[in-house]
Amino acid sequence: MLWESILPNVLAGDAPRAAEPPMDSDAFAGFYERSARSLWAYLARVSGDHALADDLMQESYLRFLCASRPELFPAEGEVAARRYLFRIATNLLRDHWRRPRAASIEETPEEFFAASDSSAQADSSAMLGPALALMRPRDRQLLWLAHAEGYSHREIAGITGLATASIRLLLFRARRKIAGLLREQAGRVPSQRREQ
Amino acid sequence: MIFSACSREKEVAELLARGHWPEACAPELRSHIDACPACADLILVTRVFQGARADTASAANPGSPGALWWRAQLRRRNDAVERVGRPLLGAQIFALAVNLVLVGGFLVYQARHGLSWLSWLEQHPELPTLHFEELWPSALMTSGWSLTVLIPLFAALALVGGVAVYLASEKQ
Description:
The complex is a heterodimer of chains A (196) and B (172). With 196 residues, chain A is mainly alpha-helical. Chain A is built from ten helices and no strands.
């Protein structure tokens, strides 16, 4: 048996071919332009950390491009690719929160969410930051995916790995909780503005 | 907390998704929303999140897709090289292990039976040429398993074993 037949790529001085990327560079550039801002918004709002959102967004796209799942994309188009990207980002967020470190996301001060928000002038952003800070990370993910991205329960289940039946209940509870917090915030924001 | 979802929630969600709230909302649905806490929550939360999404997305500063593309290419290439190297390393370790066992067995054998062939050499310093086959211990010669057969046999076994391990790993 010849080694050339066993290791053709190595002996040819060429790196072996990995699985084909899900899209070519031009298609990726277009996809990136259309999806990067919404992905960053998701990561930034759910994590409350803009620098972390930058890192996780890059890692999400790298993993997306290295994923050998070409069968997923041509059939379902960009919607599936986008969903897959959000799934990667969700897993990265979960890994980040699981990692032991000095300060976890649960301990992040409420002020961090509001202070790091460059668009705090807007009412929705000003109210949402502190309210999100009081929510659990999983609830933040569910709420953002459902109400900011407009994903269905089934799609959220695919992204988060939770059961579809659980999504409905979890989302209902999270929505009720944050609605209460937003109403509280709505009461506070005008009084704060009056003080300023 | 009691789970009491509204039956018109889907209708309200579609209204919000199409951007028809509040201007294009039917008066009947509007009066329902006023009376239904679940639908009121849905509208409040969706509008706040959509506003926050627009604000945050406009503040985003995504980098170049080209740089990411090339970084991904590099990572895929490195992963592929690593995948090829992994079974090769396994084969090398297996072959090394077989050879070590062989050498160990030979040394143990020699230790038990004494280095008779060395003493034999000392006894015949006058020999002009050295015949390699005369170095084998007599026990091996008489049993029919000379080292001239055993060593190539084990070497071939190590080689074939290494290739087999490599091919098995590659298939996986």
